């Protein structure tokens, strides 16, 4: 579903990814773990198409299409979702307004009819309820004044509404208490665990993986995948530390 | 207010950022429109300045607010090679003046809002909110003078002026000018000039909004609430639609 081959990327001329190769098949959840500065967030941003993250070598195909030639909004319309480590606050723009415009822009990109205000609200309310977010928060400006946990729940609400084929979730577990961690984990399973979907979970810690069981675990260090294994690799990392396992 | 007899020059404070060639093309200016509001009464004006791109539009108002009177002005200043709105307000005891304004300009436009608040008696208040979005080589200027007379105690005058530049070639000027001769007054003024938040833009695009729609959404939020106070819903929606159209033209 997602194939990354020999990916090299740099920021301001500084190489960060140095030949990363990875394949995620439909129906799979892959976890990417690794020490600080390994290039985990860079990988997420490169796949999302963030300006300033320049690919210098390699290919990324998503469902057979060349992902790197698409603009960020085209990647979204193709079914890609990037969950942010630090969801952005946007004063003056309400959650519902933004999400309805975003969803309808995606639908338009796919040649589908737009969703009416009423139909959209039903979907949005159902997604908020499923993750345990107060429906009133849908009316508030995007992420403004939200706690860390509320922001991550809001990311899950967005993912639920947009219903992507593939999600790249960048440290979605950071800053969460136990309850929020479980809610977010349940959200990922509910929205993304399907035979025709895929997930790349970027995380520092094993704890999210207690809720979202990965099929494959990769260790990213120095801009490359240095080790790949099953779920047991995450436990091994947690026990021994990155330095030990990578060495 | 301009001296109506002689063409202004750059030395005239109220014209220093103006397009004097355009001013000369319409000189001499007609006398300002006089709006006198009787004690305790209130008046509301909505001004949409959307002259054709080659035009010069200078609108001048002289407002006299008698004791306890209120004037509420909403201004969308977006048209013309030069588009200028001047409002000169005299506040008597306990009067209130309110301004919500947006300047949306691009190309070679020069847009200006020039206000003079004369607080000549005690207890008068004024509140001015101006939001500008400027692209191309446009210049947007807000000149806001507040003159508080010696016995105009308890004056409360505030100005909030923010500008967003879409291109590095655009210019925003924000110039508060305070002349205070009383000692028990509040005159707050804040001015900022910024650019679109790139992280917010990427966030919106990553959710599926095309770049132009993402920018329009952020700019609409920035211009935000300046027209909220327009009491007549139809009038408010018309101004908001005109502002939205102006923003879309700029991108």
UniProtKB/TrEMBL annotation, chain A:
Superkingdom in the source lineage: Bacteria
InterPro entries registered for this protein in UniProt: ABC_transporter-like_ATP-bd, FeS-cluster_ATPase_SufC, P-loop_NTPase
Domain ABC transporter: 2-247
Classification via CDD domains: ABC_FeS_Assembly
The keyword Nucleotide-binding belongs to this UniProt entry's keyword annotation: yes
Keywords carried by this UniProt record: ATP-binding, Nucleotide-binding
Similarity comment: family membership: Belongs to the ABC transporter superfamily. Ycf16 family.
Name of the protein: Fe-S cluster assembly ATPase SufC
TrEMBL record, chain B:
Stated name of the protein: SufD family Fe-S cluster assembly protein
InterPro entries named in the record: Fe-S_cluster_assembly_SufBD, SUF_FeS_clus_asmbl_SufBD_core, SUF_FeS_clus_asmbl_SufBD_sf
UniProt domain SUF system FeS cluster assembly SufBD core: residue ranges: 39-222
Recorded superkingdom: Bacteria
Classification via Pfam families: SUFBD_core (PF01458)
Chain segments annotated as transmembrane: none
């Amino acid at each position: 579903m997602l194939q990354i081959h020999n990916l090299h990327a740099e920021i301001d001329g500084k190489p960060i990814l140095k030949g990363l190769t990875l394949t995620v098949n439909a129906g799979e959840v892959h976890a990417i773990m690794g020490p600080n500065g390994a290039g985990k967030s860079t990988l997420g941003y490169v796949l999302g198409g963030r300006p300033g993250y320049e690919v210098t070598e390699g290919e990324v195909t998503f469902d057979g299409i060349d992902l790197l030639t698409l603009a960020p909004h085209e990647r979204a319309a193709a079914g890609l979702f990037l969950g942010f480590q630090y969801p952005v606050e946007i004063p003056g723009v309400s959650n519902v307004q933004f999400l309805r415009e975003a969803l309808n822009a995606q639908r338009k990109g796919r040649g589908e009819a737009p969703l009416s205000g009423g139909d959209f609200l039903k979907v949005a309310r159902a997604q908020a309820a499923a993750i345990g977010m107060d429906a009133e928060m849908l009316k508030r400006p995007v992420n403004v004044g939200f706690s860390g946990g509320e922001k991550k729940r809001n990311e899950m609400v967005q993912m639920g509404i947009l219903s992507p084929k593939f999600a790249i979730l960048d440290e979605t577990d950071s800053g969460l208490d136990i309850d929020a961690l479980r809610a977010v984990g349940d959200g990922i399973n509910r929205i993304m665990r399907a035979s025709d979907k895929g997930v790349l979970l970027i995380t520092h810690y094993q704890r999210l993986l207690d809720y979202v069981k990965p099929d494959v675990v990769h260790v990213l260090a120095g801009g490359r995948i240095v080790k790949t294994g099953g779920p047991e690799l995450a436990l091994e990392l947690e026990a021994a530390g990155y330095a030990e396992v990578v060495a | 207010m301009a001296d109506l007899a002689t063409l202004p020059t750059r030395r005239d404070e109220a014209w220093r950022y103006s397009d004097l060639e355009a001013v000369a093309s319409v000189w001499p200016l007609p006398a300002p429109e006089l709006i006198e509001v009787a004690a305790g009464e209130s008046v509301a004006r909505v001004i949409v300045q959307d002259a054709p791109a080659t035009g010069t539009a200078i609108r001048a108002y002289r407002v006299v607010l008698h004791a306890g009177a209120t004037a509420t002005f909403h201004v969308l200043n977006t048209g013309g090679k030069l588009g200028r709105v001047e409002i000169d307000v005299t506040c008597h005891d306990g009067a209130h003046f309110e301004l919500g304004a947006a300047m949306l300009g691009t190309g070679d436009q020069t847009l200006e809002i020039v206000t003079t608040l004369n607080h000549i008696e005690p207890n008068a208040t004024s509140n001015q909110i101006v939001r500008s979005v400027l692209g191309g080589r446009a210049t947007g200027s807000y000149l806001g003078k507040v003159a508080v007379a010696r016995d105009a105690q308890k004056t409360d005058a505030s100005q909030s002026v923010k500008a967003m530049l879409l291109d590095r070639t655009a210019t925003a000027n924000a110039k508060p000018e305070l002349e205070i001769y009383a000692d028990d007054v509040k005159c707050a003024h804040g001015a900022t000039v910024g650019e679109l938040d790139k992280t917010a833009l990427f966030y919106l695009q990553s959710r599926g909004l095309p770049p132009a729609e993402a920018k329009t959404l952020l700019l609409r939020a920035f211009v935000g609430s300046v027209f909220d106070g327009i009491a007549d819903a139809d009038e408010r929606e018309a101004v908001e639609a005109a502002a939205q159209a102006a923003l879309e033209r700029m991108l």
